[in-house]
Structures are given as C-alpha cells and as structure tokens.
Amino acid sequence: MSLKIDEISAIIKQQIKQHKQSTELKEQGIIISVADSVVLIYGLDNALLGELLNFSDNTTGMVLSLEEDVVGAVLLDENPEIKEGDVVYRTGTVVEIGVGDALLGRIVNGLGQAIDSGPKLKIKKNRPIEAIAPGVMYRETVNEPLETGILSIDAMIPIGKGQRELIVGDRQTGKTAIAIDTIINQKGKNVNCVYVAIGQKNSSVAQIVQKLKEHDAMEYTTIVAATASKLAPQQYLAPYTGISIAEEWREQGKDVLIVYDDLSKHAVAYRTMSLLLRRPPGREAYPGDIFYLHSRLLERAVKINKKHGGGTITALPIIETQAEDISAYIPTNVISITDGQLFLVNDLFNSGQRPAVDSGISVSRVGSEAQIKGIKQVSRSLKLELAQYRELQAFSQFGSDLDKDTKIILEHGKRVLELLKQEQYKPLNQIDQILILLSAQERLIKWIPTELIGEYRDRMLTNFHKKGKAIWDEIDQTKALGDKVKAQALALLKKFTIDFTASIPNYNGDSYGDFAEFAKEN
Ligand code: ATP
Ligand code: MG
C-alpha cells in the first residue's frame, strides 16, 4: 500500500499540530482514503479484527483487514460525512445487536435496527454477531423432524431439527417459495423463524412480509433485510445478525428455523468489500477466506443435547446457480458445508412440476432419522419408483410397443408426480401426507385418470377429515400406521376412490388393471 506524498504530509502536519504522543496514536488513527464504504486508516496499531470504530461524525465502521501500517475498515452507516484526514477512534468492542422476543414480528436491517413502521424496539439484551459454534460435547444427532409441509420434501428428502439443508437452483425456480412455505408451516409448532434477505429487491422482501402476515406467520418470525440498495457491509453482516438472533432463542431451549436468502449474493457482497480493501483475489475473484465465511456461519446451526438445555437451529441456506452449474466455487463450497441439498431444476419447473425438487439428485444426509414412523412406512419406495419412472420414460419415447410391466411403472410414476405437485402457501399436515402417500403405495391412484389426480387428492383429504376423523386422530397420536388403523384408513380410501370414479363422466375403468373386480371387492 503506497501513500501519496500529499497524504503523508497531511498526516505529518496533523500529527505535529496535535502533539500526539505515540501511545495515544495507537487508540486513534487518521483516515487515508474513503471510497465505496471502505476506509483505509493510518494508526490504530492495536485495532482488532472485527472491532467497532467510531468516526468523528458519530458514524461507525468495522475493522476487516489489518496490514502492517494500514487498517482497512468498512462503514456501517449510510451517508457518513467523513473525509481523508479525519480522526478515527477505537471502541474496544465488537459489533453487537439487540436480541430477544421484542424482535418477533419485526423487520430489522443488517445491524439489527428496526426498519419497519413499528414502535421502537425494546431491547433488553445485546449479543456480539460473531460467536464460536457450540462444540461437539454440546451437540446431539438430529432426531426430530422439521416439517416443511411440502410433500415431496417431507417424504423423500426429510429435514431434521438442527440440520443444514441447502436449497440450490437457477433463478426463478421456486427456491424462496420452499423456504417461505416452510416458515408458514411452523405455525402452532413452537418454532421461531428468522428470514435473512440478502441483496434482494425491496419489493420482493415487502411481498414476502405481506405473505407471511396473511398466513399469521409474522408472529413468530423476524426478518433481517439487507436489500440490494444497502451497502455491501450490511449485506455481509445480515446473516450473522440473523444467526445471533436465533442463538438467543436457542439458548433458551427453543427450536429456531433460519433461512439465508441467498448466500450467493452474500458471497458477492464480501467479494466487493475484499476487492475494495485490496485483498488478493482468488478463484472467481473471491477472497481466500470465503469458505470460512460460510462455514463459520453454518456451523452455528445445531441441535443441542438435553444436558445443555436442548434447543435447535435449523438452517436453510439458499444458493443461486447459473445454468445449473453446481461446480462453480460458491455452490461447491456450500454443498460441502451442508448436510444435504434440495436441487431445483429448470426442466421440472418449466414443465409445471412444482415444487421443482429433483428427487434423483437431492439428498438429506441426516434427516431420515428424524422422519416420523408413519411417513417412513408409506414413503420407502417412492424415490426408487420415481427413479425407475424417469429411466423408462427416457427410452419409452422411442418405442410405442411397451410390455405390461413397463407400462405399469410409467403410469404409476406419472400419477405420483401429479400427487407431488403442490401450490405455494398450502403446506400439508404430516397425517394428510401419510394418507396421500398411502393411496400411492396401495396403488389406489391407478384407477384415477392422471389429469384428475390433483382433484382426487384434495377431495380425498376433505372426505377423510369429515368421515375418518377418529382414524385421523389415532394416526396423529401414534404418528404411525398400526395394522388395524391402516386397514381402517385403507377401507375409507378405497370407498372414496370408487365414489370418485363414479363421479367422472364416461369413466371407462382404468388405464391398467381390472376396475370392475376392484369395485366388487370393496
Ligand atoms: P429468484 O431466483 O428470483 O430468487 P426463486 O428461485 O426464489 O427466484 P421464487 O421466487 O420462489 O423462485 O418462485 C418463482 C416463481 O414461481 C414465483 O412467481 C412463484 O410464485 C412461482 N412458484 C414457486 N413455487 C411454486 C409452486 N409450488 N407452485 C406454483 N408456483 C410457484
Ligand atoms: Mg428467491
């Protein structure tokens, strides 16, 4: 870092004027340059990484790089009135934010300050935004489900409390939709939610808040918003602010869900800051510590054991890919940090298969331990059936003459995919999910024309809630399908299936199998 002659002379002049002793200079420094929210400072020999600095106009900054004779810092406030030659003071503290229940239902910025129209935040406690993740002695394995309410995910790629599951896909593939639906589904389940919006448009965040309000989900949710119009440092800090808010609740033994939407933009904000601080660029021009940036954030998602108070933080980071390239730097980094990935693919999304989760390549490494027994019982073969379907579908396009077995797999797969289609903001209860999956496992859906599957599913549930309340409640209590209750549920489902087919005009039996026989038996 070379200093210009006039900068040096200005510094010397200032020093002489103020007769500063060298010891004092260590606690204060002089601005050498200010540009794009990044400040280079001379002096501050004792400054610490992450330390908060005070500027002469009462704005604040944070130390981000320590070099031999220059300290690099980022500005945390907008429109500061500082210039070269101004004095900077150390504070000896790190960045802290307000935490606690006062934040529920509120929107805060990357520094934890309220930015909604609500009353002044009544903060009783502060926490530093950086914290060391709990060690292995405090943790236990994931064993409780974090219900997303999305059938395809809960059945095939289940997420557990304390897990980190990445949502990854190109732009406009329904990534945010999955996260928001999961938040909406936590209603009445005693899970506090934190949604961190990084580098998004103000209007998108406003829409999300609106949707959460409509579904009474803001009551247990905090939004941390560092939108695209905010300085890079705010976008950089937002996820840490979010996880600190979550950690306060976790320490009280609560379950928390945190969404980072999205970490690609977070990485870009950090890259911008690093390049302005003239740190050496690495792969894709990201600084060398970009992996550490995300790993230290995601390590703070945790399931704490009973001995240390319980409490969980489940993290759903989102990553946007370009042309489904998951081998780019940031996607590979975050894939290797998380416990599984939900891959959203363009083909599925564009063909109307929404949520566009590709069950073939999506994984959840720890979540199946957490699935409730009832869902496990009816979803075991689902992934395989869909894999077989996809395989056969690819080559069945070439020939018209298909043998019976192939046809059965294709017809079944088509119907299962229809069953898995789910609109936004309509999370499904676990027991309802069991019933839907049971109708697939028992092949009841084969009697239903593919284009009517959606209607069949919805009416089947309504019918079951009305006529099978006692059975529903029993499954709910045991969270499993015992032999007796399964037979009862199945009888009701079969009867409904026959009634449903009767209401289809010109129903001509089925695509395969013998409907007449089925109808007679039931
Ligand atoms: P971006 O890259 O812009 O952040 P995204 O991947 O987060 O996009 P969303 O904003 O969640 O995608 O969804 C994109 C569009 O698809 C939205 O208009 C949304 O309403 C619609 N959409 C998402 N999920 C579904 C669904 N399950 N059913 C129907 N429409 C959906
Ligand atoms: Mg989005």
Reconstruct the topology from this structure.
Layout: H1 5-18, H2 22-25, E1 28-35, E2 38-43, E3 51-55, E4 60-66, E5 70-75, E6 87-94, E7 96-99, E8 107-108, E9 125-128, H3 151-156, E10 166-169, H4 175-184, E11 191-198, H5 202-214, E12 221-226, H6 232-251, E13 255-261, H7 263-276, H8 290-298, E14 302-303, E15 312-320, H9 329-337, E16 340-344, H10 346-350, E17 363-364, H11 373-379, H12 382-396, H13 404-420, H14 430-441, H15 453-467, H16 469-478, H17 483-502, H18 515-521
Parallel strand pairs: 8-12, 10-15, 10-16, 11-12, 11-13, 13-15
Antiparallel strand pairs: 1-2, 1-6, 2-5, 3-4, 3-6, 4-5, 7-9, 14-15, 16-17
Helix pairs in contact: 6-7, 8-9, 11-14, 12-13, 15-17
Bound molecules: adenosine-5'-triphosphate and magnesium ion.
Structure description:
- There is one protein chain.
- The chain is α/β, with parallel strands linked by helices.
- It has three domains: 5-93, Elongation Factor Tu (Ef-tu), domain 3 (Beta Barrel), CATH 2.40.30.20; 98-113 and 140-371, P-loop containing nucleotide triphosphate hydrolases (Rossmann fold), CATH 3.40.50; 377-521, Lysin.
- The chain has helices spanning 5-18, 22-25, 151-156, 175-184, 202-214, 232-251, 263-276, 290-298, 329-337, 346-350, 373-379, 382-396, 404-420, 430-441, 453-467, 469-478, 483-502, 515-521; strands at residues 28-35, 38-43, 51-55, 60-66, 70-75, 87-94, 96-99, 107-108, 125-128, 166-169, 191-198, 221-226, 255-261, 302-303, 312-320, 340-344, 363-364.
- Adenosine-5'-triphosphate (ATP) binds next to helix 4.
